[in-house]
Amino acid sequence: MFDSIKKKFTSEGNEPVGTTAKPDICRDKSAELYAKAKTFFPGGVNSPVRAFKSVYGTPLFIKKGDGCHLWDADDNQFIDFCCSWGPLILGHNHAKVREKVTEVMQNGMSFGAPTSLENELAELIIKNNKFIEKLRFVSSGTEAVMSAIRLARGYTKRDKILKFEGCYHGHSDSLLVKAGSGLVTFGETSSAGVPKSFADETIVVALNDKPAIEKAFEEFKDQIAAIIIEPVPANNGLLLQEKEYLQYLRDICTQNGALLIFDEVISGFRLGFEGAAGYYQIKPDIITYGKIIGGGLPVGCYGSSAEIMGHISPDGGVYQAGTLSGNPVAMAAGIAQLSELLRMGFYRDLNKKTEEFTESIQRFATARNYKFKVYAIGSIFWFAFTDKEAIRRADEIDPASMEKFKKLHRELLNRGIYLGPSGYEVGFISSAHTKIDLEKAKRAIFDSLEVVFREK
Q1: Could you tell me if 62 and 13 lie in one domain?
Q2: Which of 286, 309, 341 is where one domain is finished?
Q3: Which residue has the higher pLDDT, 261 or 7?
Q4: Distance of CA 93 to the CA centre of its chain
Q5: 267, part of any domain
Q6: End position of a domain, from candidates 311, 341, 371
Q7: 206 in a domain, yes or no?
Q8: Is residue 166 part of a domain?
Q9: Claim to verify: residue 173 and residue 244 sit in the same structural domain
């Protein structure tokens, strides 16, 4: 029986699965660029996770992306499962996105004034998403969430926000907050420079804990403006929640006059055109989206009912503005990308591809009794060194398991596979990943897992 299973998972040509570590790829040029970057930028990077502190080696400096492939400064080629942290659902340098952006750029790239492209992209989103009636474009997911929080406070005339440990909502002050030591606590700042008074307006509880939610509404009656959650928590592992729990959040917000905010910066347009709201058929009061609506360019938006959005300036008293909001380059990229997502069968094909890929890897690990799980939803997946059937809370992740991820990441890089440089980060599949690419990636993953689990 085992022989037949093993044969099924050997690489092409009936070669045995690799069991030895691969030599490290050359990173000389990347290392040189990183050394120079450290003289310009804190830690040598412009976003912390890029510094490769959680994995082996120095950061890779990327010089080119095309389809599902990346090339670094040393001309190493990789199959990319990071996809610019998710937004590149069509892959890198997609022809229709590139052509639309190039066409629009001929007329200028920034005006700080309205263009018809804003109308076109907004109409594309609203006509195909029953959960929002009006939206406002901004320049990032962080800005979208920050603005949604302000809108919730302005609309409800309440100050406190409830968030969950294990959900990340960008780097605005009131959300850079972690849980304290009690069941229901005011948050503690998770970054220097965030005043305690800001954290005191944010209540942090564990995911998947109904009593904590109920206690929060009891203790802070008529003070909570909103609950904010990633309906598919994907910034601290893939902490998939049950629909019943998300519906519970919807119901308790309604009962207490609070708003429910779905932060869909990652899940938006990944599970389907209507994101997690559509996937679970749960209507939040406000939804936020990120760079996926702009083909990966710097853009985001938040949307809601016309009534709630009517409180945004200049119609209402909640101020929010941005010189680059709705800029023509990002709008053009978004129109091209989202038009592709509306093609018949796009999500069916992408999600099926992801399902086949992840299930194959899980079968391989299970056949060898490896303590390893692949969690997936839509075209998002996460590798975890655990035997838990489900991980729904951040405190269920074993920090010691990250040592195995470090080894896996190194082995995969050496075999031409690029994942985000942290075991807490999820992976993504794009429509540009072909069957051949995914078969090659699976072989590399099989080989790498063999190395990780055979090392003492």
Answers
A1: yes
A2: 341
A3: 261
A4: 20
A5: yes
A6: 341
A7: yes
A8: yes
A9: yes
Question: With 70 as the cut, is the pLDDT of residue 182 above it?
Answer: no
Q: How confident is the model over 233-256, as pLDDT tens digits?
A: 999 999 999 999 999 999 999 999
Asked if residues 417 and 79 have their Cβ atoms less than 8 Å apart, the reply is yes
Q: List residues bridging with 374 in a β-sheet.
A: 383
Cα–Cα distance between 328 and 334 in angstroms, integer? 10
Identify whether the C-beta of residue 96 lies closer than 8 Å to the C-beta of residue 336: yes
Whether 70 is in a domain gets the answer: yes
- Mean pLDDT of all residues in the chain? 92
Q: For residue 140, what are the contacts with CB-CB under 8 A and spacing of at least 6?
A: 170, 290, 291, 298, 299, 300
What is the extent of the structural domain holding 30? 2-80+345-454
pLDDT digits (tens, 9 = 90+) for 120-163: 999 999 999 999 999 999 999 999 999 999 999 999 999 999 99
Give the span between the Cα atoms of 171 and 149, in whole angstroms: 13
pLDDT of residue 193: 79
- DSSP classification of residue 419: -
Count of the separate structural domains present in the chain:
2
> CA separation (Å) from 245 to 231, 248, 282, 390?
10, 5, 11, 14
Burial 149-186 (b: 16+ CB within 10 A, else e): bbbbbbbbebebbbbbbbbbbbbbbbbbbbbeeeebbb
Question: Are 350 and 337 members of one domain?
Answer: no
Name which of 329, 435, 446 is nearest 383 in CA terms: 446
Give the integer Cα–Cα distance in Å for 284 and 227: 10
Q: Are residues 283 and 144 in the same domain?
A: yes
Does residue 234 share a domain with residue 189? yes
Catalytic residues: 168, 263, 291
